[in-house]
Design goal:
This protein is α/β, with parallel strands linked by helices. It is 49% helix and 7% strand.
Length: 307
C-alpha cells in the first residue's frame, strides 16, 4: 500500500486543497482518514503534508472541525447512446452540427424525467422548445447534443461572432438567416449562452439595436413553432428577457453533480486500477465540482500498477 500512497500523494494533496478551500466540510473526515492511512503504512511524509494542508485550511477559515462520517454510495448502470452521421454546415451563421456524445449524460432524476417526457412527446410530433439552465460545466450542452441525437436531428449552434454585426439592423437580419437555414436543414437550433443576445448593445453601442435584435428573436422563435424545436442554454437565467423565456415549453435546471452522480461519472471514466483510498477521495473531496471540473481532475490523475 505504501507505493500507492506515494504514487498518488501529489494528486491527493492538490485535491484536498481544492476541496477544503471550497469550504467542503465533508472533506475533513476523508483527509483525516488519509492521514491515518499514511501513518499506518509508515508513510510519515505523506501524513505530515496532508495534516499541514488541513491545518492551513482551518487557520484560513476555509473549514471548521467536522466529525461527520462517510455515507454509503451506490453504483448506477451506464447507458450508451447511438451515434449518428451529421451533415457538414457551410452556413455563415451556424456552427458545424454538434456530434452526439458516446454516452448518455449523467443527470439528476428531475432532469432525466423531463428529458424522457420530452422524447415521448417528440415521438408524437411535438416540436417544443427547451431551456437548459445552470452553472457552467454541469452538462447542459452535452445533454442538448445527446437529446438531438435521440431525435435523429442535427443540432446547430448559433455562431455568435458571425451573427453580431456593428452595422444597423445587420444582426437582426443575420438571425433571420440563421433560422431559415436550420429549417432548410431539418435540424434543431441551439442558442447557447442566450443571454449574450441581450448584451448585443455592448457590441453595437445602440440600445435601439439591442431591442430590435430581441424583437426579431421573438418573432423567429414564434415562426419556427411548427417547423423545428429550439434549444437554449444559459448560466445567467435572470439576465434573459422574460418574453424570450416564455417561448420555451420546458425549463430544465442543472446543478453541480451530487455525490451519487459524481461516483457514477467517475467510475464510468476510470478504467485503470486505483487503490481504494483514491476512489473514495475522488468521490468525497469533489463536493461542488462540475462535470467539467471532474474531467480536468481525472485527466491529471496518476497511473497505478496492479497490486
Amino acid at each position: 500500500m505504501y507505493i500507492y500512497v506515494m504514487n498518488g500523494l501529489a494528486f491527493i494533496c492538490q485535491l484536498a486543497k481544492m476541496a477544503l478551500k471550497s469550504h467542503n466540510q465533508e472533506a475533513i473526515p476523508y483527509v483525516e482518514a488519509l492521514i491515518r492511512l499514511a501513518e499506518g503504512e509508515g508513510d510519515g511524509e505523506s501524513a505530515k503534508k496532508l495534516a499541514a494542508i488541513l491545518e492551513d485550511a482551518r487557520k484560513r477559515g476555509f473549514v471548521m472541525a467536522n466529525l461527520s462520517s462517510p455515507s454509503d454510495v451506490r453504483f448506477p448502470m451506464a447507458t450508451s447512446s447511438a451515434t449518428m452521421e451529421l451533415p457538414v454546415s457551410t452556413s455563415r451563421f451556424l456552427e458545424d452540427p454538434m456530434p452526439a456524445p458516446l454516452d448518455r449524460p449523467t443527470l439528476e432524476s428531475s432532469v432525466s424525467k423531463g428529458i424522457r417526457d420530452y422524447i415521448l412527446r417528440a415521438s408524437q410530433g411535438s416540436k417544443e422548445n427547451i431551456f437548459f439552465v445552470g452553472p457552467s460545466g454541469t452538462g447542459k450542452t452535452l445533454t442538448a447534443a445527446w437529446l438531438a441525437a435521440q431525435m435523429g436531428k442535427p443540432l446547430y449552434r448559433l455562431a455568435y461572432p458571425r451573427v453580431f454585426d456593428s452595422y444597423l439592423g445587420k444582426t437582426a437580419r443575420n438571425l433571420v438567416s440563421a433560422f431559415e437555414e436550420v429549417k432548410l436543414r431539418d435540424g434543431i437550433l441551439f442558442i447557447d449562452e442566450v443571454d449574450a443576445i441581450l448584451r448585443s448593445r455592448e457590441l453595437t453601442g445602440d440600445h435601439g439595436e439591442m431591442q430590435r435584435t430581441v424583437n426579431v428573436l421573438l418573432i423567429e422563435i414564434d415562426k419556427a413553432r411548427d417547423d423545428f424545436p429550439i434549444f437554449a442554454a444559459t448560466n445567467l437565467f435572470d439576465k434573459v428577457d422574460t418574453a424570450v423565456a416564455r417561448r420555451f415549453h420546458l425549463i430544465l435546471h442543472f446543478k453541480p453533480p451530487s455525490k451519487f452522480l459524481r461516483e457514477h461519472f467517475i467510475r464510468k471514466r476510470i478504467e485503470q486500477y486505483i487503490p481504494p483510498y483514491m476512489a473514495v477521495s475522488l468521490i468525497e473531496l469533489t463536493e461542488g465540482f462540475s462535470y467539467a471540473d471532474l474531467e480536468k481532475l481525472l485527466d491529471r490523475m496518476p497511473n497505478f500498477d496492479l497490486p
